[in-house]
Structures are given as structure tokens and as C-alpha cells.
Automatic annotation (TrEMBL):
<protein>
    <recommendedName>
        <fullName>HTH arsR-type domain-containing protein</fullName>
    </recommendedName>
</protein>
<dbReference type="InterPro" id="IPR011991">
    <property type="entry name" value="ArsR-like_HTH"/>
</dbReference>
<dbReference type="Pfam" id="PF12840">
    <property type="entry name" value="HTH_20"/>
</dbReference>
<keyword id="KW-0805">Transcription regulation</keyword>
<keyword id="KW-0238">DNA-binding</keyword>
<dbReference type="GO" id="GO:0003700">
    <property type="term" value="F:DNA-binding transcription factor activity"/>
</dbReference>
<dbReference type="InterPro" id="IPR036390">
    <property type="entry name" value="WH_DNA-bd_sf"/>
</dbReference>
<dbReference type="InterPro" id="IPR001845">
    <property type="entry name" value="HTH_ArsR_DNA-bd_dom"/>
</dbReference>
<feature type="domain" description="HTH arsR-type">
    <location>
        <begin position="1"/>
        <end position="95"/>
    </location>
</feature>
<dbReference type="GO" id="GO:0003677">
    <property type="term" value="F:DNA binding"/>
</dbReference>
<keyword id="KW-0804">Transcription</keyword>
<dbReference type="InterPro" id="IPR051011">
    <property type="entry name" value="Metal_resp_trans_reg"/>
</dbReference>
<dbReference type="InterPro" id="IPR036388">
    <property type="entry name" value="WH-like_DNA-bd_sf"/>
</dbReference>
Length: 108
């Protein structure tokens, strides 16, 4: 991940609703969620949710898959892990560090 990609991802997450949406998709795991389920879970208007999902997708943090008449949104774990790696890449600058490696999601 380069600096521009990190800024884009962090910018997308720098909004309360988008952060809530992304976290809900992370919790949902590889099955993902439809916009209607997300809207009900988060108690957010569907047109507002659509805008936030578009921003997250543009930043590469979520993927979209058409399944019949439904869209399924999923957290993009590789991108999330890449962002975490970018943020912790030079952790402690060769000093003693409590973190031996960046935490990554390996379950998905």
C-alpha cells in the first residue's frame, strides 16, 4: 500500500457512519450483508447507506457482488490488513517493541 491509498482508506473510514458500516461488514465475515440488512442493523436510511457504501468501495475497503437481484457487500480483508501493515510498518524503529508483527485478520 502506498501513501495515497492509505490516505484514501483512512479518509473513507473517517466518518462515523462509514466506520460503523465497515465494522458491521467485518463482523459479518465472508458471507457479507445486503444493503437492506445493513440499513436495518445500523438504523440508517438506505439512500444514505448507499452513499457510504460507495465511498468505502471507492477506497477499496469493501467489495460488491451481485447475487441474483441482491448486492452483497463484504469487507475487503486484504486491503484492511494492508492498511494496518502500512500504519505499523516501521514500528519502534528497531527498538524494543511490544508488537512482534502487525495484527492481521487471518480468519477470512
Amino acid at each position: 500500500m502506498n501513501e495515497d491509498q492509505a490516505v484514501s482508506a483512512l479518509g473513507a473510514l473517517a466518518h462515523t457512519q462509514r466506520l460503523r458500516v465497515f465494522r458491521a461488514l467485518v463482523v459479518a465475515g465472508p458471507d457479507g450483508l445486503t444493503p437492506s440488512v445493513l440499513a436495518d442493523q445500523l438504523d440508517v436510511a438506505r439512500n444514505t447507506l448507499s452513499f457510504h457504501l460507495k465511498e468505502l468501495a471507492h477506497a477499496g475497503l469493501v467489495t460488491i457482488e451481485q447475487q441474483g437481484r441482491n448486492l452483497i457487500y463484504r469487507a475487503e480483508y486484504a486491503r484492511m490488513n494492508s492498511l494496518l501493515g502500512y500504519l505499523t510498518q516501521h514500528c519502534c524503529q528497531d527498538g524494543v517493541c511490544e508488537v512482534s508483527s502487525p495484527q492481521t485478520c487471518t480468519t477470512c
